[in-house]
Amino acid sequence: MDENESIRTGRHCVFVLHAHLVFVTKYRHRVFTDRHLRRLEEIMRVVCDDFECELVEFDGGTNHVHLLVEFPPKVPLSKLVNSLKGVSSRRMRHEFPELVGHYWRAQRLWSGSYFAGSVGGAPITVLHQYIAQQSQPV
């Protein structure tokens, strides 16, 4: 895919924004099987679509998931994360009753914390250099 093909446009902006998200299960319980991970991916794709985002990549293990999400600048990342975690927790609890035993006290699948990192584009050192050169006369 050509780099320019991934550039999106909004009403007043042009953008390419990606975030790497990691969610960990409450108490790091090892609860996910391949079947659970497949369903989590489906749920999270729907949530991303609702936010006009794209779930570019998804993978996980028995106690965590990794997401690569492309999102528009109008979407606060914290709101997207809260929706991804909240919706997936409720749907998984409803669809997979065997997971409820791992929720016990808090009735939540996910830990309250998460990892979010920006990805893509030039390395930060190149950006520093580029910005510093902008003030120099031609």
Automatic annotation (TrEMBL):
Classification via SUPFAM superfamilies: Transposase IS200-like (SSF143422)
Domain Transposase IS200-like: 14-134
GO MF annotations in UniProt: DNA binding; transposase activity
GO biological process: DNA transposition
Pfam families per UniProt: Y1_Tnp
Signal sequence range: none
InterPro entries assigned to the protein according to its UniProt record, in alphabetical order: Transposase_17, Transposase_17_sf
Organism domain of life: Bacteria
NCBIfam families xrefs: transpos_IS200 (NF033573)
Name the record gives this protein: IS200/IS605 family transposase
Species: Nocardia yunnanensis
Name of the gene this protein is made from: tnpA
